[in-house]
Structure formats: C-alpha cells, structure tokens
UniProtKB/TrEMBL annotation:
Transmembrane segments: 475-496
Record-listed E.C. numbers: 2.7.11.1
CC per GO annotation: plasma membrane
Assigned keywords, A-Z: ATP-binding, Cell membrane, Disulfide bond, Glycoprotein, Kinase, Membrane, Nucleotide-binding, Serine/threonine-protein kinase, Signal, Transferase, Transmembrane, Transmembrane helix
PROSITE patterns listed in its UniProt record: BULB_LECTIN (PS50927), PAN (PS50948), PROTEIN_KINASE_DOM (PS50011), PROTEIN_KINASE_ST (PS00108)
Identification of the protein by name: Receptor-like serine/threonine-protein kinase
Entry keyword Nucleotide-binding: yes
Gene: LOC110754434
Length: 877
C-alpha cells in the first residue's frame, strides 16, 4: 500500500520520466523507462476500504467486496479536470458510468499529487498544493477516534468508526445521504425532520461537467407526499403527484405500475418522509438519473447491446422542462435538435451546445442600436432596430398586456421601451410586450393552433433620420450608396438577361427546354404531395433524392419480370441496379391498386424521417407522369416469412438468429414509439413486413399504414381500420381504438410465430383454437411449453430463453391493453436472463368465447392487408 508521501514522490518521478533526455546512459534510461511504465499502469488497492494509515491517489482505486462498484479519480469526456467518483465495475457495465461525485464544484488538475485520505476522522481530498478540496465535514466530537471509508456493493460509500461493522453499525457519514445526479436501489430520497437533512438529486451541467446543473429533484417541502423537479432550485415545472398507497404509485407517474421489476416504497412518519426502491431481481442493473436535460430517467443496463435502456422518463415531453434552451433559445419537440437559437442570435457557448447542454442560452449577433428617442409612426422617422417574425410560438410568462388603438402601434411601443425585446398581438386592441431575456420559448408543431406570431427585436444597419447636419451628411451618404447600388443591380440584371437569353436559345436548339419544364412539373408535384400527406400537411421538411423515371427504368430493365421480386396490394417490387453497382429495391404503385396511393404518400413522409438500424432505409423516390415509386436499400435475404414458414428454408433460422431477430424487431418498434423525431404507430407489423439483410438482421418495413401521434398523445380512434387479420388487437379490430399497445399486440403474435415457426393465419381452420396464441396457451397450461417451440430448433435452443420468449408473447397479446407491457419493458424482459416475469392471463382471441368478428362492429371500416402475399419483398436473385 502506498501512503500519501510515497504517491507524491511517484508523481514527481513520472514527471521526470516524461522530461528525460534520451541521450543519457542507455541502461539507466531503460531502467527508468521500465519504472515509468510500471507507475503508469492502473493500480488497484484490491480492497474496499481506505483506512487511517492509507490513502488513494493517481490511478489507484478501491473496489467493493463483490466487485460491483469502483471508486477513484476519473476525467469526464474531453475535460482536463479530475474528480473523485464512484462507477460501476467494468466487468458488470462495459460503459464507464459515474453514479456519484465527491468534489463536483472543485476539480483537481493532477491526480498523482492529489490525495484522498482519512484526516481527523473525516474522509478528505487534498489538491496538489495541499489545499482542502472536499471533506465529509463531520465535527470533531462526532469523529473522535479513528475512522475508515468502505465502498459497499450497493454503491454506498460509508464512513464508519474503525473496527465497526459496515453492514450493521450506524455510519458516521454515507454517500447515499448526499446523492449527486444518480439514485441507486436502496438509496433514499426524502427529508429527515430530526437532522433537518434533505436528499436532493442535482443534474450535471453537461456530459463532461459534473458541476451541479440547473435541474434538481426533491421531496415537496410542503408535505404533499409528492416529488418536484425544480429549475435553479426555485421554479417548479414538474410534480409526481401524491403517493397512492393502494396502487403503490405516484398519481402522475403511471409507468410505476409496471412494478414487476422495481419494488417502490414510500415511508412517512414523524421523523422522516422518504421514497426508496429495490429490484425484485438483484442481478438487474438499474439506476435513477436526474439528467442534464431536465428529465428524470429510470435506466436499466442491457449487456447484450452494451447500452442503457430507458425504462421511463418524466416529464415525457422534452419541451416541458423549464428554460431548457436558455435565453433566446427555442425548444422544438419534433426537431432532431431540441434547442435552436432564434434568428439573429447564436449560442453563448458553442461547446456546451455541442454537448446538448443548452442552459447558457443565446446572445445577439448584432446589438440593439435604438433606445429612448420617441418614435413616430410616420415614414419620416425610422428606428435602426427592426423585427423578425417567428410563427407558431408559445409565449414566455414575462409579458405585459398593453391597450392600443390599433395593431400598428405595437411595434413603436416596443421600440420606445429600452427593455422590450419582442412583442406579439393579443387582439386588435391589445398587444403583449416582452422585456428582458426571453426564456422558455417553444416552437409549436405545425397545426397546433395555440401558437402565436412573435416579433423579435433585432439590431439593424438602417440609419436613423434626424434633424441637423449629421442628418444631411447621413442622407447624402445613403443617397450616393443607394444610387450606386441601384446602377450595379440594373447593369447586372441586363447582363443576366442577355446571358439567360443565349442559354435559353441553346437549350431550345438542343431540345432541353421541354425537359427542364418537365422536371419542374415533377418537382412541383413532389412538393405538393409531401405537403398534403397523412400528417395533415404543413411545412415540408422531408428532403429525399428525386430519381428520374428514366434512371428507374434503366435500373430495372424496363420493369422486367426477371427483376420482379414480390407483389402486394399496392403493386410490384423490383430489384434494381443503380449507377455505381448499388442494389436497391424499387416499389412501384400499381395504377389498378385499390389501396396504395394514400399509403405511398404516408410512407414517403414517415420513413424519410426515420433512421434506425432495425428500420428499412428509404433512399429516394420517383414521381413522374403517372408513376409513384419508392426506392429502398436492398435486402438480399428477403422477408422473414419466407424463412419462417417455408419448410425447406426454416432450417436457416437457428435459435440464435431467431432470438436476435426478436430483439432487433423490438428495438425498432421502441424507436418509432419513443425515440424517433415522430411518435409513430406502425399498425401492420407482421412477418412479411420484416426484411432481413445479408447478416440476417431484421429491418421493419412498410409504413404505408402507419399513424403519427403527437409526442404526448397516448391513444386515438379511427373509422378506417387498417392492418392484417390475426395481428390486430381486440380494441382496434372491434372499435378502431389504437395506441402503442396495438403494435405491442402485433409484436406478441409475431414473437410467437418466430418461436413456433407456425403462421397465425393458419389457425382459423382448427375448431379448438382461433389463434396461434390460443394453441400455445393450451400447451403452456398443460406444462407442455417446449412443444410450442419449432421442431427444427427445439433440440438446439436454449430452453429457458425460448420459454421466456413464449411468456413475453403471452403478455403482449392480452385482451386488456393495460395488461400489455410497453416495448421498453419487453426489451428489458428479453435482455435480462434472470428477470422474473409477471404471470400472464389467457390471451385474447384464444377461444370462441372471447372473440368477436371484426365485421360485427358497425363503427369501423376495415382496410385489410392481405397476409397471403408479401407486401414489401425485395428478394435477391
């Protein structure tokens, strides 16, 4: 064990190694280099304790007894500063994940001359200059005698009296009482009336700065049994709602209902009130985070994918976080980037914005130039400041309502007020004047009628017309400059006109004019289609390559039968070869198609905005003459149903490939439900709409029947039921009611098909069961679950994994949507081997007793996708 003085000497020796003259004695140099390399190696104290005669410095760490957590110095991201922190052991979590930081406000610059040790009964951190950087701050009366710090497998760093038992003795101090941005299972978040201590979780400033950020979570000090998220420890923008003991949830956090993973407990008595949680399966790795985005997040580690899975977060909408984008920043819920500076502004700290930490806000590019002088509405006077219109904005709260004679007075009123930074119209007789920094602005979605037009005050180069000589000189300069500019523009225009005439004549001779007009016509039609598709029209932000019909004909050999690889209700699919030998799948809308036109436009708009490894990628489109064509990446292994239900090919799908396909499909669905720019319900998930690339990775396709939801929307109704019999959930098939749980139901059917190798549609021929789920359920109840597994993989599969998949499938196809898990829960159940699953009830449609024909509902008009053919089938030949 190295003591602090030894560590300091070693640090000096390392610096000497780095600055040595390589021309010294070779043997001496070699020995010194070996010593330097040794010193640079990571040194673990191999113990979980720092005792009174020990210290921690440099690359040394301590590790909890079970090897779960590690404590030492760390450097976040590209930062040059070092902190003392606790993180998960690399053998459990391959991604470095910090859960607690000691010196959040005061980092050190040199770890080898900085020391963490026991001093006067406290755990303290000294910098290279022997300055006290951080301490547990216990008074001497409490810490009489020696002490030691122990890192527990719970992630709790405990300071205890030397010789006492860390598991049974009351600690002198513990990190769980002083959480940073992470709340681990077993920790408490509450208020102790005896010690007057409140546990508060505070976000990092950014992913590379552990300093306390603007957002914090704490219990309501007014005793409402609720938790609050505060901005700057002062402004509340979210509450959990009160605790309901009967349902064991907070009223505004319905996700807590899925308590088969987390055991939540709320305790309140005369001494304290606190909230805590544990895991039913101790092997599950999970943490609760106050994120720098201002949202609280429940995360679970998925070792198979090497990433943290978001189980739930609050508030659900990013833009509900108060002042997320800082002064003069605008939040946009559907944009790929959450925050943008208003026109005329730029980020105050581009580095912070690059790290998605926006709280520093934006600053003016050009300062305001006018203030204080009276402004007439006549044309004689003109202020150098102007206004920029920004449409469909939500207004901040620091606004003043002003009565005006007419709307035209709003601008001059703002210009006469030195503090005014923007204004908006309330009515023909009132306007809102906004002063100071504009906070909490939001760009609302197209179609949201609650927004208003905001007029932002910006600096301008226009000269102010005043009386006197200065005015005359300014006027002469302006007139001369204006005249010169006008002559330049006029001369340029005639030159351009002459050149353009020659070019037009050349194109006419070459027959190009007609082609250009044709292209403009196609481009106009393309833009018209995109502005009037399934999301209700509005601004088009879809930018797809537009292919010519000639290039498509060349790629498919004039749509030859030899290139045809599939056909559905919309029309045929062809394999094509683009220049550069790029293979593509070309989906052509049939002129005779009864469906397809609306589906084509829907898919064009939706899938162009989706980017995920488990979604098929749209490369472009062709809209020319009467043709509507979509061009996708080519999937050489065709669609999943070709392997799954063909006896001659199902042997290609061993159990490992099947399980990876199940996980990939689940990840793709989770993305469109939760993480994509648009919240989307697919509505037609089935084996034929899952394509397989060359490595047999699944990619969800065919978004023609998909539906866009608002970010905070959870359900909807329709009179146009679309999809495929057998994959529709009961509430959708009967009443046209749909939500994310419709896709969950379809996924459950698909999962059972993948495990069993049987097609759900085939079961209508059997009297004893209407569906695949019903057949599987009967075997499951009789203890014959292994018989559900496809015979081709039954002997080689992992039985526990396959049986778990069957049970997850049953959970997904429950009658009541509330009984079905979310896709986030599905992924968690599939990925964690030891996760205990809740008991499932009888699946929907499993017997004649709980089934109702779709046609019996007069409220809906079904538009059914034919399950007998493959709708999106780019097949390699």
């Amino acid at each position: 064990m190295f003591n602090s003085s030894t560590i300091q000497h070693l640090g000096c020796l390392q610096k000497f190694c780095a600055s040595m003259d390589t021309k010294s004695n070779p043997k001496f140099v070699f020995n010194i280099l070996l010593l330097c390399l040794f010193l640079k190696c990571h040194i673990s104290l191999a113990a979980d304790t720092i005792s009174a005669d020990q210290s921690l410095s440099g690359d040394q760490t301590i590790v909890s007894a079970g090897g779960v957590f590690e404590l030492g110095f760390f450097k976040p991201g590209n930062s040059s500063k070092y902190y003392i922190g606790i993180w998960y052991s690399k053998k459990l979590v391959s991604m470095r994940t910090i859960v607690w930081v000691a010196n959040r406000k005061t980092p050190v610059s040199d770890t080898f001359s900085s020391v963490l040790r026991i001093s006067d009964g406290n755990l303290v951190l000294f910098s290279e200059s022997e300055t006290l950087v951080w301490s547990t701050n216990l008074v001497s009366a409490t810490t009489s005698g020696s002490a030691q710090a122990v890192l527990l497998d719970s992630g709790n760093l405990v300071l205890r009296a030397d010789g006492s038992n860390a598991n049974t003795s009351e600690p002198l101090w513990q990190s769980f009482d002083h959480p940073a941005h992470t709340w681990l299972p077993g920790g408490r978040l509450g208020f102790n009336t005896v010690t007057n201590r409140t546990q508060i979780m505070t976000s990092w400033k950014s992913s590379e700065d552990p300093a306390p950020g603007l957002f914090s979570l704490e219990i309501d000090p007014n005793g409402s049994n609720a938790y609050l998220i505060l901005w700057n420890r002062s402004r509340q923008y979210w509450t959990s709602g009160p605790w309901d003991e009967s349902s064991r949830t907070f009223s505004f956090v319905p996700e807590m209902r899925l308590n088969y993973i987390y055991n939540y407990t709320y305790v309140t008595n005369k001494n304290e009130s606190y909230f805590t949680y544990s895991l039913y399966n101790p092997e599950t790795i999970s943490r609760f985070l106050m994120h720098s985005s201002g949202q609280i997040q429940q995360l679970t580690w998925l070792e198979n994918s090497g990433q943290w899975n978001l189980f739930w977060n609050q508030p659900r909408k990013q833009c509900e976080v108060y002042d997320l984008c800082g002064a003069f920043g605008s939040c946009n819920e559907v944009s790929a980037v959450a925050c943008n500076c208003l026109t005329g502004f730029e980020p105050k700290s581009q580095n912070e914005w690059d790290l998605q930490a926006y709280s520093s806000g934006c600053s003016r590019i050009t300062n305001l130039q006018y203030c204080g002088t009276a402004v007439s509405t006549s044309a004689k006077y003109r202020a150098p400041d102007g206004f920029q219109e920004i449409h469909n904005m939500s207004l901040p709260q620091n606004k003043q309502s002003v009565v005006v004679g007419n709307i035209s007075e709003c601008g001059p009123i703002c210009l006469n007020n030195c503090s005014c930074t923007a204004y908006a119209y309330e009515s023909s007789t009132r306007c809102s004047i906004l002063t100071g920094d504009l906070l909490d602005l939001q760009q609302l979605a197209t179609g949201d009628r609650s927004g208003t037009t905001l007029y932002i005050r910006l600096g301008s180069a226009l000269p102010l017309l005043e009386s006197g000589n200065a005015n005359k000189r300014s006027l002469v300069i302006a007139l001369v400059s204006g005249t010169a500019g006008l002559l330049t523009i006029t001369f340029g225009y005639f030159l351009w006109k002459k050149t353009r005439g020659k070019e037009r004549e050349r194109r006419r001779k070459n027959g190009e004019t007609k082609t250009l007009e044709k292209e403009r016509k196609h481009r106009k039609r393309y833009d018209e289609i995109l502005s009037n598709v399934a999301d209700g029209g509005g601004m088009n932000d879809t930018e797809l390559p537009l292919f010519s019909l000639q290039s498509v004909l060349a790629a498919t050999n004039n749509f030859s039968e030899a290139n045809k690889v599939g056909e559905g209700g919309f029309g045929p699919v062809y394999k094509g070869i683009l220049p550069g030998n790029q293979e593509v799948a070309i989906k052509r809308l049939s002129k005779k198609s009864g469906q397809g036109h609306q589906e084509f436009m829907n898919e064009l708009k939706l899938i162009a905005k989706l980017q995920h490894t488990n979604l098929v990628r749209l490369l472009g489109c062709c809209i020319e003459e009467e043709e509507l064509i979509l061009i996708y990446e080519f999937m050489p292994n065709r669609s999943l149903d070709k392997f799954l239900f063909d006896p001659s090919e199902k042997f290609e799908l061993d159990w490992g490939k099947r399980f990876r396909i199940i996980e990939g499909i689940a990840q793709g669905i989770l993305y469109i439900h939760k993480y994509s720019r648009l919240k989307i319900i697919h509505r037609d998930l089935k084996a034929s709409n899952v394509l397989l690339d060359g490595a047999m990775n699944p990619k969800i396709s065919d978004f023609g029947m998909a539906k866009i939801f608002e970010i905070n929307q959870t359900e909807a109704n329709t009179n146009r039921v679309v999809g495929t019999y057998g994959y529709m959930s009961p509430e959708y098939a009967r009443y046209g009611h749909f939500s994310e749980k419709l896709d969950v139901f379809s996924f459950g059917v698909l999962l059972l098909e993948i495990v069993s190798g049987k097609k759900n549609a085939a079961f209508h021929r059997f009297e004893h069961s209407l569906t695949l789920a019903g057949w599987a359920w009967e075997l499951w109840r009789e203890g014959r679950g292994m018989e559900v597994i496809d015979a081709s993989v039954r002997e080689t599969c992992q039985p526990d994994e396959a049986l778990k998949c069957i049970q997850v499938g049953f959970l997904c196809v429950q009658e009541d949507p509330a009984d079905r898990p979310t896709m986030s829960s599905v992924i968690l159940m599939l990925a964690n081997e030891a996760t205990s699953l809740p008991p499932s009830k009888e699946p929907a449609f499993s017997t004649h007793r709980n089934s109702v024909a779709v046609s019996s509902s007069p409220q809906t008009t079904p538009i059914i996708s034919n399950n007998a053919v493959t709708i999106s089938l780019p097949e390699g030949r």
